[in-house]
Batch of 4 targets.
Target 1
Amino acid sequence: MRQQAWHVLPWLDVAKALDVHPAKGLNLKEVRRRLQEVGKNVLAVKKGTHPVFLFLGQFKDFMVLVLLAATVVSGLLGEIADAITILAILIINAILGFVQEFRAERSMESLRSLTAPEARVLREGMEQRIPATDVVPGDIVLVDTGDRIPADVRWIQAVNMQVEESALTGESHPVTKSISPLHDEFTPMADRQNMGYMGTALVNGRGAGVVVATGMDTEMGVIAGMIQSVEDEETPLQKRLAELGKWLVLISFLVCVAVVVTGILRGEDFYKMFFTGVSLAVAAIPEGLPAIVTVALAVGVQRMVKRQAIIRKLPAVETLGCATVICSDKTGTLTQNEMTVRQIYSDGRRISVSGEGYDPKGEFQGADPEKERDPLNTALKIAALCNNATLTKKGVQVAGLFRSKGKDAPWGIEGDPTEGAILVAAAKAGIWREVLERKQKRIGELPFDSDRKRMSVVYETKQGRKAYVKGAPDMVLRLCQQELTRQGIVELSNERKRSIMRANDEMARHALRVLAVAEKPLADAEPLDEGVEQGLTFVGLLGMIDPPRVSAVKAIRVCRQAGIKPVMITGDHRLTAEAVAHELGILRGENGGVVSGAELERTSDQELSERIMDISVFARVTPKDKLRIVRAYKKRGQVVAMTGDGVNDAPAVKEADIGVAMGKTGTDVTKEASSMVLGDDNFATIVAAVEEGRGIYDNIRKFIRYLLSCNLGEVLTMFLATLVGLPLPLLPIQILWVNLVTDGLPAMALGVDGSEPGIMNRPPRKPGESIFARGLASKIAVRGTFIGLGTLFVFVVALFMGVNMLGARTMAFTTLVFSQLFHVFDCRSEERGIFEVGVFTNLYLVGAVCISTIMQLSVIYVAPLQVIFKTTPLVSWQWILILCVAGGPSVLIGFARLLKNSWQGKTVIAKG
């Protein structure tokens, strides 16, 4: 259908072509047929991996396949108990891996779907509200001010309709719509005044349209198809770990071959040594590492969702920890996106207005708005009447007599935010349009347009007709001949006009957007045209601003502590951007500059790259400027997060290291191009996501440290025993059991550990930093050596004390397990010891260690398991030796770190 040039056809022909009655809409049977034919009205997303393939994928590892083959051989040789036990361990490992990956997969699937808005349609002659996803071609869609258009439509009715299409076309001003056919089939999209497009929004008027395209057939869908990038990809960390895995496989293979060959040369049974080698290889290779990394990222994703940061691409989680620059839009992200009247100028007085957002609670300092003869009262009445916005609670229109409705619900507005702001200012004085209109009735309106820069309404009152006007101060003031004062109406001299404009300029310097209000009595026979705007009486100026979010001010402070540069990018004027940036703390004295879009046009890419680190605010920029800004920062080696909402922002969002889309105001196309979506459009959420990203990377380092040091301990235990001619301290089945008990639940529990204190007080890590940087490799080597030597020490002592081979192996087996279970608590921090971190500050880890302990005690004390795992019960002195050797390093390291950090004055003792 999209190949049809709908804009050149008369609307009746469009309705006929789509087989729909304009006054009745489609019938339900036809809706169901079309829905089945064209599908849901959504942008396509990639489906995840089927659970069956996820599970089977757990067995594709080479060493697991070797072990499965060995298990089959074992069964054929009659070792049924060993075969069943090894197979059970492999299946349990596979289930653990499956759960981890399934959780990560479902996390990403759920995060790709965002709640669709509703649509009003005409079906079978009745107006209905339906999910926008159920709209089909041929539906008659009804839209009003504030509504978002759910699909591509050809307008069949347009009453004072203006549509904000910047998200799709880049056109900064609302486009006036009509129903007349156009003559050129190749008319640019931005000039198709009889068309409406998915994702754009009505800012004025109302209308109806025939849906001509849905889903991926819409203009938004076409662009989505070009820029959509939802392919799953490995993070740089996962790629580095895969490379590490190859080396570990090679080294482990060589060590295991050495163990097997040495054992055979010493007369050990070939079958036994073969199984030992394979089991040791399985234990040495951290095959669970990719799954653990995946689940850590997925857990982090879930945490971020709770903080309103929706991660769409897993690489963003890792990259967040490296972010050095956050480029953010102003409106709604750094500010509240709720215009608020802060000052009113009337009768030569500056009147301050208190209150925040759309809540009609506040005070007026400098005048009494309730006095009828006070010009402020009149100014607020004009603000309420010359207005098409509506004050709401829970989405329900609220008049002055029903302010108690939904006391706990947030206030909101339907309509233009600027009109909403002055409507709220009037409500703060108890002046409500709904109440005023009981005594006077609107009979005409001259809507706002970009040429006239003003809006006028005409009301029938008991005293006769009256015109109320609001608009740009310079445009309104030139039409005024008089001024309303407390003494009555006086002539407006040129000197007085200059005085009013000086007041306007002063308000503008404080980043206030200013509107002038005026009135005029009319004769009954006077025509309702622009003549009613001549000879007006000036009443006042209303100055409003979109105030900064309190959370954004705090978040910017955190950014600076974390070594991250906050940058504001806005389409607003330079003065407004500069004032808000100072209030937010983005601009501080001489630090950081302000550059306008016009200056950017005159600046080459090379010059911009050289200056970029000295600029903190970009004002009056276009979407294409954002792409240049991102590239300039990246050229300087910065890791950039960039926010965007419109389709034209998608290139910059995609170019950024971390593309951030707005969840409330962003288009679906921008969300598809982004790495992360803000559920609340709040700058503080980006900073919170950076904090989570750093914490997730730290957690990944924690269990890499844990897994590799434990695996190193296992390999050293077997290798050194073989090297010095000792009997094998562990049997193959015991090696596999150690791998299951220690590498499973405890490692997973590390992935949900909380962030270190002061994580946002350190600079961002470098993107190319090795996972083993900052001394991690030495920590792994030292602790792995301790685990291996400690296990061998217990084994040798047991033999020396006359303990039989069964008991000695049980002691070595148990020492190896408990050494790793103690070590997992050390891995929770790279700077603090177990006594500072606290044992009970991660209850998941405590639970995991308890389960692993119970499992290990079971194989020692449960008779049937003793037979399978070749163990024997231990007595008191054996337990004392095991616990001292296994837990000694953790206790000593914990005390050493406590003393060191106390000496340096940075100890933080965790609660619990």
Note: The domain at 6-33+116-229 is CATH 2.70.150.10 (Calcium-transporting ATPase, cytoplasmic transduction domain A).
Target 2
Amino acid sequence: MPVSADRQKFVYDFTEGNKDLKDLLGGKGANLAEMTNLGLPVPPGFTITTEACKVYLAGGQEPPALRDEVTAHLDALEARMGKKLGQADDPLLVSVRSGAKFSMPGMMDTVLNIGLSDESVAGLAVQAGDERFAWDSYRRLIQMFGKTVLGVDGDLFEEALEEAKRAKGVTTDVELDAADLRTLVGEFKDIVAKETGRDFPQDPREQMDLAIRAVFDSWNGDRAKLYRRQERIPGDLGTAVNICSMVFGNLGPDSGTGVAFTRDPASGHQGVYGDYLQNAQGEDVVAGIRNTMQLAELEQLDKASYDQLMQIMETLETHYRDLCDIEFTIERGKLWMLQTRVGKRTAGAAFRIATQLVDQGLITEAEALSRVTGNQLAQLMFPRFDEKAKTEFLGRGIAASPGAAVGKAVFDSYTAVKWSRSGEKVILIRRETNPDDLNGMIAAEGILTSRGGKTSHAAVVARGMGKTCVCGAEELEVDTKRRRLTAPGGVVIEEGDVVSIDGSSGKVYRGEVPVVPSPVVEYFEGRMHAGADDADGLVQAVHRMMAYADRMRRLRVRANADNAEDASRARRFGAQGIGLCRTEHMFLGERRELVERLILADTEDERQQALSTLMPLQKTDFVELFEAMDGLPVTVRLLDPPLHEFLPDITDLSVRVALAESRHEPHENDLRLLQAVHKLHEQNPMLGLRGVRLGLVIPGLFAMQVRAIAEAAAERRNAKGDPRAEIMIPLVGTVQELEIVREEAERVIAEVEAATGTDLKLTLGTMIELPRAALTAGQIAEAAEFFSFGTNDLTQTVWGFSRDDVEASFFTAYLEKGIFGVSPFETIDKDGVGSLVRAAAEAGRATRPDLKLGVCGEHGGDPESVHFFHEVGLDYVSCSPFRIPVARLEAGRAAALGKGSSDTR
């Protein structure tokens, strides 16, 4: 729907907004307004709303009223500051910065020092009493403006800067003097003229207007779209633009810029965490182009600013009730706050911080659940390096994002993506990353940089994606042109050599280091108690969050398990029963031939012989399963294999017969078998003779399975056990199919009850995995006591996809083009498949109010899908054993968020 530009307010002063206006002002603008309201030292400025961006993106032009509104707010800013934008003798300079609702670090554009020109640079030098500072600010403007606004290749500016340092014989840009920088400005202007065909703009208002438009455009830049897909951020939100009066950290040794966290974003521990860089502007810190000092060292350099910063950090954390990420600048001893936001953190830090805030009385248990995610819990269950293993140590950097990552060394993003698509695991190694490296960072198992700290681009983005990252490994020399890394002692790692990085310790190793299970998995397995061997408090934090979730959730969580071993593991992981036992998995290996004989039987005697052989095997399977899950429900799905899985391969059989005929060898049995297979051969077995259809076509098949279930349950009950079997008929498309099978099953159950003297209380239901079943769910519920949604097949049949084929053929293109935000096999398609689930649930319960509803497709373990199933009103989800903790946590989060807790993305 087009955004109306009539009678809207598109610009807000920092004094007008607050932190609750993120939809309108973006996260950065809303938080600048909030800090202004709190009386913190924020440079004056104003914010252009996301609504203005939406109008621009929809029509390619700014709203007609926007220019006048910007002019009015700029006039007010100039009056407050006592200077004009870009005036010759005492120029006002501003920054133009993006700021979407959700944090997208480095993905969109920022331009500093807007207002500088050939004329005003001299005035800035006089005003500051520092000629070097003025020319350094001017070269930064041309470099940032040229790259982000005019589209000049940023490497051209970097090469000119590197050449200037080489000519001077220095290694850092702060060692270049005013004359060097003046010359560099001339070279930068020549680059702009050559690459764009126009001179660098000297009109300060033109600079600002072009920068605003560039920020709007950057919302749809490739890296921003890729990041949004990765983080599942909607593409229609737009970005705000923040115009802020400049304060300068590059005015000498009593100035600087930094990033601070109110707690360690890597571990969650309380303390002083952050980076500070003297004589620098903000982008220098996050870009990682110079190694920073730790924030604690600022106390020795400028105690007054340090003390003020610590007080402000405490104020912000208490106000936001969460870990805050803060950007600040010190201008000649004066502290200025440039940004705050709820900080990105590692998975372990998220769990620790949430429980710490509960203990401090800042948040409730329900709010704590909103601060963690199932994906983060899954990260904590990944293996870690074996500390006892023999290793070849290469060096150590800053532990920026934890995990154990092993892969082949690559030195650019293109190679990382290319090798990853070929099935290789890679470690992306760079001096420092920048937003253009996002593709490679996503493709890599982990990221290693020789520059930058915990607040560098690599660290912030890696933490947000849950990628292992080691930053600032200064002792490792990274040569991207020669594609090699050199460690102390002369050890060289060439591209393609395997390296291992430990994001928890910062250690880097040559070769592959073996891994051991995560302590969180050991906890869920019952091999570690919360508090024991838990020096960093992670297991205790996970234990508490799981307790919160279990107390709060409405959805029960079951397991997809086909044998007693998986059932026992699932029970240790917290499963409340089995939601899907796939009986076809019981007939693989040596038993496969028995099913083949049954399917191909020509006579009643052959069929009965096959069934009588299968019956005791099935019963034994169920006895073991009911024992492992005693007292909990076990949903057993009757046989549902695509037919070809239990028949000889028609090509192999044809070749065998042809060879026998050519050699005049006996082949009557193979020929008879080939004729039978030809008769049953299907072009599309997934839509053929399977599920309930197989049970109706092969007499006695389902009756044998029902008898095995009933006898196993009776044996368990007579042994003082508590079996709770549920029999599920697969692939039903019409109620008549279910009625026929149900009638037969009830007859068999009654026979077993009479013979064993037991009351089995078995229930019968069906899978809803076909669109017709969902659309006629009201009729089907007349013959079913429960529904279990088979969302894997339902997704295939709704979309017309063959999962095994389409994921490899065109899903990548669909994801890149934005047709999918995420694969519909990974997260349920709420609009299509989800609408059928919702409609079937409502229709089924309208017929049978006590109808039990569950889901047994792998969507049952997907965090986002669990929230949908909670909303629809299902009774349980079922998933693979190792996904059970994730489903439990997300079921608790769904209940907590339903009660109004805020989801702090």
Note: The CA atoms of residues 19 and 324 lie 13 Å apart.
Target 3
Amino acid sequence: MDTPPVPSAGTSRRRFLQAAPLTGLVLYVGLPAIGVAADAPAKYGGDGMPEGLRDSPKIFVSIAPDGTVSIVVNRSEMGQGVRTSIPKIVADELEADWKRVRVVQAPGDEAKYGNQDTDGSRSTRHWFDPMRRCGASARVMLEQAAAARWKVPLDSVQARNHEVVHKPSGRKLGYGALALAAAKLDVQAPASVKLKDPSQYRYIGKEDTFLTDGQAIATGKTWFGIDTRLPGMLYAVIARPRVLGGKVKSFDATEALKVPGVVKVFAMEGTPPPSEFQPIGGIVVVGKDTWAAIKGRSLLKIEWDDGAHASYNSPAFRAELEQAVLKTGGKEVRNEGDTYAALSKAAKKVEANYYVPHYAHASMECPAATARIVNGACEVWACTQSPQASRDRVAKRLNLAADKVTVNVTLLGGGFGRKSKQDFVVEAALTSKEMGGQPVKLTWTREDDLHHDYFHTVCAQHLEAGLDANGKVTAWLHRTAEPTIASIFAPDPKTLATFELGLGLVGLPYAIPNIRIENPEATAHARIGWLRAVNNIQHAFASQSFIAEIAQAQGKDHRDLLIELLGPDRLIDPRKIGDGWNHGESPERYPVNVGRLRGVIERATKEAQWGRKLGSGKGLGLAAHYSFVTYVAAVVEVSVDPSGDILIPRIDVAVDCGPTVNPDRVRSQIEGACVMGLSQAVVSEITFKNGRAEQDNFHQYEVMRMNLAPKKIVVHIMPSTYDVPLGGVGEPGVPVIAPALMNAIAAATGKRIRQLPLRAQLANVT
């Protein structure tokens, strides 16, 4: 990885934050941003993100005299392969030799590099076209420089594999020899740039397993946030309040200061709820090494004021949520036809309740950031998904101009949304300030990570379906109660924000005449944040499990019913089915395509040999879902032994994300999503007692171990042309896994699991 030398629309998440000052104002997602005229044309995709898109090669491409092409990546790498995919787009249009390409990581600077938020499964889909233009513009500039040197017409020269060739004579000039002259030329207007025909692609869409940082990662030679080392660096950890809104009443650091290597203990002021992404405060222990700091922290004597949320207990809150979804009168978020009337007249009714707990991000690398302040300027090294937001918040807390703060982005050992929150970066900067500007690395332990996460929200859901005398589904009622992410930005919102409703809830694409979706109130008692796939996790679990239950009640094949509910192939304007967000994408460019959803269902079930006879205690389960403008279907095969232990021989996943830049990374992301989805389904859970997260480490917050992992995951990428816009990949694979597994278990055992995680619910089931 290229690292700095040691001693460097839709409503977007950042715009959502910018519109939510920590005041008593209520935030309504979907209203025009402050300073934007209400009648201004809507912007979508990358253009709708803060600072938008850039496509100039003078920003992203530089060529050395020896011909080395350096390509800047403005998004954060956390395993999704963005430091490979984006440079390959540029290199392909540039006609560069990939062996001579060097990848450079951009610091946080959106005014220069365009939007840098690495979230929402949108890095490649937003930057595919701009990076194509960037590479093509650079190629043309090199061709212009060669034509001028040879004094020949431009159309007589052509860039080919790191050289410009004069076609009539065969003369050649390497990119290094032309770079200086090319850099002095103007960049073509984007509309005039001629892009390659996809048939000419050398890298885009091609099968390989190359990963820019792969060898360096495997050999321990790259740089993650926790790897930063600076001369004279100190190390810090923080004892934070365990309860939302808690604070320090008093503390005694006498014993902590006796630990060899501990140099200072001080109180860091926190931000009371709603605290956005600001530090929650606590007692900071600074040492000459991390172990001294951790040991010192363990000896602190702290009296806490737990505040109003000290009574938060998971069993009681679950009961509260479940009562809420059983009552009529919740906020109406979608209503077509007359669902209550249709239910009352139904020949048959099916109903079920589902529960999903809090989850933690639990990325392999815990949050870590290093900061130092020299001559009134702060420099940070951090594993951040949002470097510009980190820069903005550090600048504000240190009372510095933004140009006095540099945020260098390291590799991320996983992120899943946690590292888009900047609290840990601000903590490092504030600690350096307290230490007179000395470099300080602020480390979160795994216990810190699980106790003080921005948790995936807890959720209870109630669904009802009405069937007519012919078994046709005529009514669908869905109620969901879940604390909202908006609760970290504004005081006490109790219903879901627009973008949360658009995450697999209101946008059901089924041809059911009467659909009603309600959102009862729910109070947040913990910091809520987005986790990979966000609210799609619980919404897909409920809806896809429930369709299987309807099929069972009718005696129908689950796949056949699912396809029947989709109705005829058609394009649906998401706004007409209640989704005014559509993942921030244009509803005209990204309508919901029922035919594509049907296609992945048919592909996954074909590959899994749906309908084949299985032995006792074995079953196949199906789920399909549209999220992040991508269509995914999964079939899970499961075997359940008499004691209730499960084995997963195979998972087939069909994914239609439009054209793919790097098919190997698409498969890798879907494979990882399968493991993460299974962890959520089988073992992962955060519970609260007296306001505190009860899980301390991986012996309590479990992730799937190798013995439970699928023996085989087969990813089927649906073919696509480049006329279809790109979809997301990092997140859409997660939501289908839990319902597909539970549907498989129901098929194998006859027992329906409606509460996650599975854990011991199958004890002695067969």
Note: The first strand starts at residue 61 and ends at 63.
Target 4
Amino acid sequence: MEFPILLIVIIALALIFDYINGFHDAANSIATIVSTKVLTPFQAVLWAALWNFAAFFLAAYVIGEFKIGNTIAKTVNENFITLEVIFSGLVAAIAWNLLTWWFGIPSSSSHTLIGGFLGAALMHAFMMDYHSVAAAQPELGFFDTLKHAFHQVTSQDVVKFNKVIPIFLFIFMAPIIGMIISIIITLIIVHLYKKSNPYKADKSFKRLQLASSALFSLGHGLNDAQKVMGIIGAALIYYHVEMLNDPIYVNLESGARFDYFAEHYLWVPLVSFLAIGLGTMSGGWKIIKTMGTKITKVTSLEGVSAETAGAITLFITDHFGIPVSTTHTITGSIIGVGLTKRVSAVRWGITVSLLWAWILTIPISAIVAGVTYLLVRFIS
């Protein structure tokens, strides 16, 4: 089977994004274990990358499905998905990811990808409606045509809100859940070890950090690699349904197509998990500094609490098939351990800056993707 060139480019770009996601989000998995000097940065990225890739086997052979990938593929109505839409969304996501990485801002790769996908699909729908209105009512002026097209887009169910609303809510819920769990874990550990020798306790926590960071890296791989798999899946499903008119895909219910794809294109999740692991090995030292030291000073005890809380949050959201940001999750968990000491232990100026980056990620990615889609249409 020969794939069209644009589909090959999309798969390549998606894996490049996955790789960038790995080094962009490396800080999520290793910032606390590096800042507490349990592992050197080099050892830490190797450790995190190993567990990022191990998440593939957990998803494929233990859980037996890729819920988050399925959710991502269904955030946009299938009628408004094209290869140009997916390409434009990926270009926007890569651009925003590289920009925030360069400035050391721990933004969400997940929401960047989702924002890009939504923005390109909405622009595609708008352009279709604009041409439809212009053809049907040629007497309308330019601005009246725009107005009618915009009104038409809002009534077309381009965005699947039953999938997107939980993703938006968990921009705020994931860090709050991580924060609450980390506070509870920290208070329990402090109570259990209050009579222990501080030196021996610290050695125990440093050993435990190897386990907690592995768990968080496992959750990171499980969550983030599936998002790229979902985008590639959307492209391949479009290829089979719209370009090949493949009777197997056409006759399947829309909801069953992704599961069929995952079963017959197992190399897609495999290379998605591999790419994010390789990206993690490349590290993201600018962001590690922000995550590991600037939000609050983290001890090995607090590192165990933050990483364990983050991992629990990621496993819960994976169970429900809700794509969340590992960046948001671990940030909330780190804030939680800071709050157990005192409110002033958290550097709120840094935290507020991160919050603005989180809020702006989806709309900025959507706008960039929309503009990219217009450029692609103009060139083609």
Note: The chain has one domain: 3-379.
